[in-house]
Amino acid sequence: MQGTVVVTGGSRGIGAAVVRALAARGVRTCFTYSTHREAADVVAAQAADLGTEAVPVQADVSVEGEVRRLFTQAQQLGPITGLVNNAGITGRQSAFVDLEVERVRRVLDVNVVGAFLCAREAVRRMAATGGGTIVNVSSRAAVLGGAGEYVDYAASKAAVDAMTVGLAREVAAHGIRVAGVRPGLIRTDIHASAGEPERVERLKGTVPMGRGGEADEVAEAVVWLLSDAASYVTGTTLDVSGGR
Ligand code: NAP
């Protein structure tokens, strides 16, 4: 993998693991954070310890001007050959009947509009430079539905899955692959943000493999999809969920 890979939401959780996994393979990244500047600095330092540049950029992926600025900055590091659409939010766990419209709009804005904006900016550049790979971080919730917790989040990830299929078919002739991963229950801060820090512990018995997953285990799948080893893989999404 040559060039620069843009990773959204690289300051914590799965995105941070992707930045580190790419750095370990000598792949330069430009990654976003939303508000956690100190966490982003730690990830950049971890990549530097691995001998690879990882540049943090503050950007809200749902804001078009900020996404344009992100890609302008990323391209200054070198041609953009990869995008990992990872930034995502769930909102607080909620029954469907209690969902507030502002929260639903925010979830769709970050998870769907944000992924679309980043993919569009990436495709514009990759098409001009001979190709690249986009990996969308979806969720098993897209299939399971998020009942009683966040049906809006599940629906946002189903939208991302549809984008993976459609965009892959649209840009294949430009040498651009588009694929996705659907993580299951992964140990990150996202569950605390949703209001239940121990969610993985509560639900791990529903996982055939009997445990939650680690961010590094998702990152390895993302890195494979980005790599030339996956050169004939496009328009598909890989479950990384211990069988759940
Ligand atoms: P996390 O630990 O909560 O980290 C979220 C990351 O996204 C942080 O780097 C955060 O930046 C960034 N971010 C949030 N909103 C943003 C915005 N509007 N613009 C730019 N960046 C933003 O989450 P995670 O568990 O690693 O999840 C990463 C992805 O995996 C998400 O798409 C999530 O839906 C998906 N996923 C996670 C699980 C799981 O069990 N953990 C399961 C399935 C799918 P700050 O650090 O600045 O806040």
How would you describe this protein?
The protein is α/β, with parallel strands linked by helices and 244 residues long. The protein has one domain (4-240): NAD(P)-binding Rossmann-like Domain (Rossmann fold, 3-Layer(aba) Sandwich), CATH 3.40.50.720. It is built from 9 helices and 7 strands. It has helices at residues 13-24, 37-49, 64-77, 101-129, 141-144, 151-171, 190-193, 199-203, 215-226; strands at 4-7, 28-33, 54-58, 80-85, 132-137, 176-183, 237-240. The chain has a 7-stranded parallel beta sheet, with helices on both faces. β2 (28-33), α2 and β3 (54-58) form a beta-alpha-beta unit. α1 runs parallel beside α2, α1 (13-24) crosses α9 (215-226) and α3 (64-77) packs parallel to α4 (101-129). It is globular. The two termini are 31 Å apart. The model has no long low-confidence stretch (mean pLDDT 98). Bound molecules: NADP nicotinamide-adenine-dinucleotide phosphate.
